[in-house]
Amino acid sequence: MSVPCAVAWVWGCALGVVAGGVAWTLRDGVHQPGAALAFGTLIAFGGLARWHTGPGEREPAPLGAAGALAYALVPAGHGVPQVVAVAVTGALAGAVPHVARGRGPDPDYMARRVLTLAFVAVCAGPLHTVPDPGRIPLLLLLLVLTALCDAVLAALLLHARTGHPYTPLLHDELRALPGIGSAVRATGAVMALAVTVAGLWALPVVCVPLLLTQLAFRRYAAVRRTYRQTIASLARATEVAGYTPPGHAHRVAALSRAVGRELGLSGEELTVLEYAALMHDIGQLSLVDPVPEGATAPLPAAEQRRIALLGGAVARQTGVPAAVAVVVERQADPYREQPLAARIVRAVNAYDDLSGETAQGALRALEHLRLGTARDYHPAVVESLVRVVARGGVEGPVPG
Amino acid sequence: MAGIPGAAHAYIACAVLGAAACTLPALAAGSATPWGAVALLAGLYAFCESPARCRLTAGAAGRVTGRPADGRPGRAADGAPPVPAGCYFPVLLAAALLLPPAAAALAAVPGALLGPTGDRPPARPRRVWRAARLALAVWAAARTAALLGGPAAVGPSPDLPYALLPAAAAVLVFCAVLTLLDGGILATAERVPPRDAWRGLLGRSLAVHAAHGLVGLMTALLWRSPYGWPAALFALLPMYVTCWAHTQYHRERAAHQATIRALVQAVDLKDTYTRGHSERVGRASVMIGRELGMDEDRLEVLRFAGTLHDVGKIGVPTRVLRKDGPLTREERRIIELHPEYGHEMVRGIGFLGEARAAILHHHERLDGKGYPYGLQGAEIPELARVVAVADAFDAMTSTRSYSRARPVPTALAELARCAGTQFDPAMVDALTRALARHGWQTAVTSDEPLPPPAPAAPPAPGPAREGPPESGAAGDGVGSGPARGPSRRSGR
């Protein structure tokens, strides 16, 4: 698998920082080996505690990240190189069992962590020369800056990896800032302050609550996953019932997501779009006899709208957010009256209904959509769909 | 104020008097109460607990992940997410370590008075009670910490391993007092028998409170340090984030449960005549499972298996499902596909686990003459054998297009007759024993606006929980509720 240029640059920088840090430390020897050992152990333990990480977790090893941050912030005469060397050594030691089981840490994540850590360590030096009362606001400022750097870097890496537009990705990252990331940064700061005040005994005291935070976020992520699976299986109901062809709902959902990304939707809007796309045909369950082939696109407009309204009613019963039901309900309206998500669902659904298996079918379907841009399909959405399809459709396997 | 028994009134009054006695020394003329610290901590706790903040987070995060879409009346409709009680106790524990006992108790009062009460009336006695209870607990914790030299160990030159001792003692006392008081209010207001009221309250909360105690200790330590109270706020931030994640979890869980119900309702949409059947099968399956000594996690899976066992009927053409009169061979063959359809639908849902196999095999027979695979005896998954018995039992005891409902003893006799050939005798015995002990109730909740929060919810107050089946005729309208009797919709 080829590595995009920007990713290679980030990796290169991170590797350079690590090599420099380790070489410097080897040459100069370790200052205050006790503290270095304590923090290194903590970081390694944090890495070990990365058990059962599911997809979609923003911070797989919060304890390790907080420990590294704290070590960078402790005013104790060890320089930037030693901070990087200890953090990397700890993280590598903690990753050994995971690597042995074939689930090593994500290199992008590691590179990001090294670079932000070096940034904090460099900035923390001057911070310690400030007298006590003024130090807390400056510390806060430093943490905010770190978070922003991290967000920019993460969005950059994702952009380079996936080719999605940069701004919505950055928006996503910024929106996620108050989540577990802020708990990690606050814990890191508290750890540094507490170690300064009360010695190394403060480390375990500060760690335990963060483990609780990690647990809470993991539970949240797990229930989100489960919820998504349940929605997907509800979407499969129409397929099992023979109302729609197999895989239709998933294809429409994946394509809609790709088009939504392309058009600059982010986070929450993408989730609404995806759920609505999964459930868009659910109204057909209320029909006594199935629509031929399950394809609503060739039906008369009034019938399409009736099915859409039925679908909205079913969606409302399922406890999904109101926005999802609205999109389902209005998927058959003329595009000028639709919200963006409904425009996307409408165009993508028609594309999937009409395209069939062959490449010619796909071309014919796109042609049909272009001809319908006067009233039914939004021109920008259709053009975006064309671009996504030309790129080879949807990246990654279609779930289910 | 109606609906609160006199004993509870007296109990609350006693608690309020006690709390007043605890806090008064702080207000006395000569006391050296550090008012700045009290105000800051009280304000912090009140901010954390205030309903305005709840609405803020609900608005920010609730659009995607949350409330049922329509404005149905129910728990989710009042806007406040279900913040678990005690999420913000670290603030109070820090107060207990920092302040004199009377002042610490005072810090708990504003937050407790202002906080949301949920949608359960009556609000005012609830708030007063909460304030008194917290004030008493914080006072006791602060007193304990002071006895062990907590304030001195915390700062300005902290003595760390030792400071853990007063902190731990404070947490223990805090927990114990809360448990004691909660048990009392359960016994007086909700009329829970005293032995049940206290059981399980302490152990459940101790681990979480221990972590809260550590946060409180760290907050107090930084507060006394040269960095002062702004640094202490840093220590409280992770707690705040944790509570946020907690709230989101509960929100998403509620949405998820609604979706599971939607799966069941999707079947009802096609096959209106079996309404309530799924939920009753789930309930009967759990009764059998409990009798067999399954643990709670497995029972939860079993409940899903019973509730979703017919979900594959979505795949059967509506005309066949709704047909009156005898089915042709072809139509029977189509209906017999529904376990496979159901399995196909739910196979992607990870948490269902074993329930998926139960959905696939719930029409197998012990003698191997069932479908879809004709498995025999122990080849059939255990949960599938449970669901098969529960399914047959409910089919017999409810009115169908082809037969009238039979009384419970007749149905059990029929099951016993088929045990060994069609059903697993162990399951039939378990059902018989469970019914003898708990009775059978046919009212279902599937048409109520929202599900009960969890299967393990405390029993609803009121009679008719364990009545004979005929007494469960408390239906809530057309087409819902009891599957028997005159209120059953007959116009098909």
TrEMBL record, chain A:
Q: Identify the Pfam families for this entry.
A: HD (PF01966)
Tell me yes or no: is Kinase among this UniProt entry's keywords. no
Q: Which SUPFAM superfamilies match?
A: HD-domain/PDEase-like
Q: Which UniProt keywords apply?
A: Lipoprotein, Membrane, Transmembrane, Transmembrane helix
Do the record's keywords include Transmembrane?
yes
Q: Look up the domain of life of the source.
A: Bacteria
- Residues annotated as transmembrane: 30-49, 112-130, 136-158, 190-212
Q: Which residues form the HD domain?
A: 248-351
List where this protein forms a coiled coil: none
Q: What is this protein called?
A: Lipoprotein
Q: Which organism is it from?
A: Streptomyces roseolilacinus
Q: What is the lineage of its organism?
A: Bacteria, Bacillati, Actinomycetota, Actinomycetes, Kitasatosporales
Automatic annotation (TrEMBL), chain B:
**Compositional bias segments (type: Low complexity):** 463-473
In residue numbers, the region (Disordered) covers 444-492
Any keyword S-adenosyl-L-methionine?
Answer: no
User: Which residue ranges traverse the bilayer?
Assistant: 88-113, 134-154, 160-181, 201-223, 229-247
Q: Name one Pfam family in it.
A: HD_5
Bias (Pro residues) occurs at: 449-462
Give residue ranges for domain HD.
274-396
Which UniProt keywords are listed?
Membrane, Signal, Transmembrane, Transmembrane helix
Check the UniProt entry and state the signal peptide residues, or none. 1-28
* Official protein name in the record: Metal-dependent phosphohydrolase
What are the top taxonomic ranks of the organism? Bacteria, Bacillati, Actinomycetota, Actinomycetes, Kitasatosporales
